[in-house]
Design goal:
Layout lengths: L3 E2 L10 E5 L7 H5 L4 H14 L3 E5 L19 H16 L2 E5 L5 H5 L4 H14 L5 E5 L8 E2 L3 H8 L6 E2 H17 L7 E7 L3 H12 L7 E7 L7 H4 L13 H12 L4 E7 L24 H16 L4 E4 L5 E2 L6 E2 L15 H12 L5 E6 L5 E7 L8 E6 L5 E4 L6 E6 L25 E4 L5 E4 L4 E6 L11
Parallel strand pairs: 2-3, 2-11, 3-4, 4-5, 5-8, 6-7, 8-9, 9-10, 10-11
Antiparallel strand pairs: 1-14, 12-13, 14-15, 15-16, 16-21, 17-20, 18-19, 18-21
Length: 481
């Protein structure tokens, strides 16, 4: 089967793939559970080797304004020192950061004229702390939980216990004032204001984007949403009851394509939280698979997660941020956050299969590249082209066989080049990424295989993610893993 590379939906260069990477791993709670300095070194090494193009953090007002008076700032609290350490790690890793005031600050940010707290914070970090990698600012996390558009859908959700009745007009005014403040402080070229950041359901995400796109120009703000839906193949099983039908998502590609069409080709659109969930999922867990297994640690989750990335990028997203980097007690001693790419201390920080798939995707989709859809692929294969803007540059290919049978397909360009293969039988038996490890089988992102001029057709195993890079795109080996 022949296939071709098509033009992108977005007019922007790609911002990157990344992770939610918060500072709470350093807090006293995780310390009390035994996390030590050597393990912090391991955590930081993994972030730097992963090289996320983007990252998102929470930074609540209470960490720099402990008195709560909205005026007296303490930039040297223990919490802020942990934030500085985390921001330094992300800067060294090369990530541009979205600073979100976070769920613990939502109540404060709802108060009139509190947006100056967020702008004061960013100004301090950029001007006084050298955090010039902060590129976005979000006043709220998932504001659809308390602001209402007043629509029938919004009223139905409030009646079901999801959402509150703060007027949407207040949300718009607050963000207009934040835009004015960033301009007055000379931060407009440094930081872009994030609007949206909606959680659920898809119909409400769409409604918010329609309202926001009517209020802001494409260059004024960055549009955002979150996406934790299950694998599309399981929609029928998840949305069987009459009361759940109104929450059934459309097909994923259709859903994201409509978001892009709503905000326009020239607007920035990023999914700042995403993962792949299953039965019984919630704030702290992805849920369980059909046999009761830990979904986050399965190969099916890793493959479904990769398919979600390729599907959503193919419909015009400018970036995606996985929730979250690694397991930790997340500002709480009661609940362990288990969405991480790697497990917690008592599981030896073992990377889950999704880590290796997502690491390959982060490496393929670098910031500044252009992402292009592919036409003519078999139904069980998802694929994209990715390359730089330079005239004549040849695109790399990223292909995923999400089916249960092997697939063969033609390449749209001949070799020479190289190929990286990630699949269940190619992952290390004891996966880890200690520094300076040299064995190729323990470093799957170094397991590049040569492609010759005659390799015009390739074979994909079930569950295999392949990255094919032509010779013109080859870079010096960095030893990522």
């Amino acid at each position: 089967m022949s296939n071709t590379i098509l033009p992108p939906f977005s007019s922007h260069s790609f911002q990157g793939l990344g992770v939610q990477a918060d500072s709470y791993i350093y807090d006293d709670i995780n310390r009390q559970f035994g996390v030590n300095d050597a393990e912090y070194d391991r955590w930081e090494r993994r972030i730097k080797l992963l090289r996320p193009g983007i990252a998102r953090i929470f930074l609540p007002v209470s960490e720099f304004n402990p008195s709560g008076d909205g005026r007296t700032y303490d930039w040297n609290t223990a919490e802020m020192r942990r934030q500085y350490r985390n921001l330094a790690v992300l800067k060294e890793a090369g990530a541009r950061v979205n600073l979100c005031m976070g769920p613990w600050t939502n109540k404060v940010m709802l108060e009139p004229e509190t947006e100056h707290l967020a702008v004061d914070l960013v100004e301090h970090l950029v001007r006084q702390r050298g955090c010039d990698h902060i590129a976005w600012l979000a006043l709220f996390n998932e504001p659809d939980a308390f602001y209402t558009t007043g629509s029938d859908l919004s009223r139905q959700l409030i009646a079901r216990g999801f959402g509150r009745s703060y007027p949407f007009s207040d949300y718009l005014k607050k963000h207009r004032r934040a835009l004015d403040l960033t301009e007055a402080r000379g931060l407009t070229g440094q930081v872009r204001l994030v609007v949206g950041d909606m959680a659920w359901p898809p119909a409400q995400r769409q409604e918010w984007l329609e309202r926001l796109a009517g209020e802001f120009g494409p260059g004024e703000v960055s549009y955002s949403f979150h996406h934790y839906g299950p694998d599309e193949a399981h929609y029928d099983a998840f949305f069987t009851h009459a009361e759940s039908l109104m929450f059934r998502p459309p097909p994923l590609a259709q859903e994201v394509r409509r978001y892009r069409e709503t905000v326009g080709r020239d607007a920035e659109l990023i999914c700042w939280e995403f993962s792949q969930t299953a039965w019984g999922s919630g704030t702290f867990t992805t849920g369980v698979g059909p046999r009761g297994e830990d979904h986050a640690g399965t190969f099916s989750m890793a493959v479904g997660h990769a398919e979600k990335v390729l599907t959503m990028l193919g419909e015009g997203l400018d970036g995606m941020c996985h929730w979250c980097a690694g397991d930790m007690f997340f500002n709480s001693r009661d609940k362990l956050m288990t969405y991480g790419l790697w497990r917690y201390k008592w599981d030896a920080w073992t990377p889950r299969p999704v880590y290796f798939y997502y690491a390959a995707l982060i490496e393929a989709f670098r910031p500044g590249s252009r992402v292009r859809r592919m036409d003519g692929l078999p139904t069980e294969v998802a694929g994209l082209g990715v390359g730089a803007d330079d005239a004549g540059d040849r695109y790399s290919l990223v292909l995923l066989n999400h089916g249960r049978e092997s697939v063969s397909l033609d390449l749209p360009f001949p070799g020479p080049g190289r190929r990286l293969r990630v699949s269940p039988d190619r992952l290390p038996l004891q996966p880890d990424i200690p520094s300076r490890q040299t064995s190729d089988h323990d470093r799957p992102l170094r397991d590049w295989q040569p492609l010759s001029d005659t390799d015009a057709r390739i074979h994909l195993d079930p569950g295999e993610l392949t990255v094919i890079s032509p010779a013109t795109n080859l870079r010096t080996e960095r030893g990522l893993l």
